[in-house]
Design brief:
With 200 residues, the protein is α+β, with helices and mostly antiparallel strands. 16% of the residues lie in helices and 60% in strands. It is built from 1 helix and 8 strands. It has an 8-stranded antiparallel β-barrel. The longest helix has 33 residues, at 2-34. It is elongated and about 85 Å long.
């Protein structure tokens, strides 16, 4: 009888130990199954706004002008300009002022000067070679023409190209066709410019 009692007690203890071990293991499994690994959200990219104003731009150019009327005349001179790069709508823009002096031949000999405000927008860019980017721009200019002539207010659409030989130095070629605002008509003059542009 004692042997049977010991056997029953032993079996009971074994069952109790096994049950405890199973319960502990189950708790560990549940704990490990219910653990949620939290992945930190990526930090938002810093918001960088394009500055409104960029580099200062200075251009030294030779200018030529030819009348498109029957009595063709030509003029040659020098133009200096100072401007500033800016970005109004995410585009590469330039605004500034130009001063030019030209000597005109034809019906008499005249020295003609002009002071014009200008604004240009780069509309197309490409690489001539790996290290020579090219910008094509369009714009307009406005201002008075004076000298050995009556004061004349002029506005002109213009188009040009910048060939960047270095990060801050470019060849600048431009043409414009002026309109006489005093009389509301074309001035019949095609102006062409070739110069060197510097950025600072």
């Amino acid at each position: 009888m004692k042997k049977i009692s010991k056997l029953i007690v032993g079996v009971f203890c074994a069952v109790l130990l096994a049950t405890s071990a199973f319960a502990a293991n189950s708790d560990g499994m549940v704990s490990s199954m219910t653990t949620v690994t939290t992945v930190p959200a990526p930090a938002p990219a810093p918001v960088t706004s394009t500055p409104l104003f960029g580099d200062w731009v200075f251009t030294v150019s030779g200018i030529g002008a030819t009348t498109t009327a029957d009595n063709s005349q030509t003029a040659f001179g020098l133009s200096l300009s100072a401007g500033r790069e800016l970005s109004l709508f995410g585009t590469k823009d330039e605004v500034g002022i130009r001063q030019s002096v030209a000597y005109a031949s034809g019906d008499g000999e005249n020295t003609i000067a002009s002071t014009r405000l200008y604004g240009d927008v780069t509309v197309f860019c490409f690489d001539l070679t790996q290290n020579i980017p090219v910008d094509i721009y369009v714009g307009a200019n406005f201002g008075p023409t004076y000298g050995d002539t009556s004061l004349l207010w002029v506005a002109a659409p213009e188009a040009g190209v910048d060939v960047w030989l270095a990060p801050n130095v470019a060849l600048d070629a431009r043409i414009d066709y002026a309109f006489d605002l005093n009389h509301g008509r074309s001035e019949d003059i095609l102006e062409y410019v070739l110069g060197v542009k510097f950025k600072f």
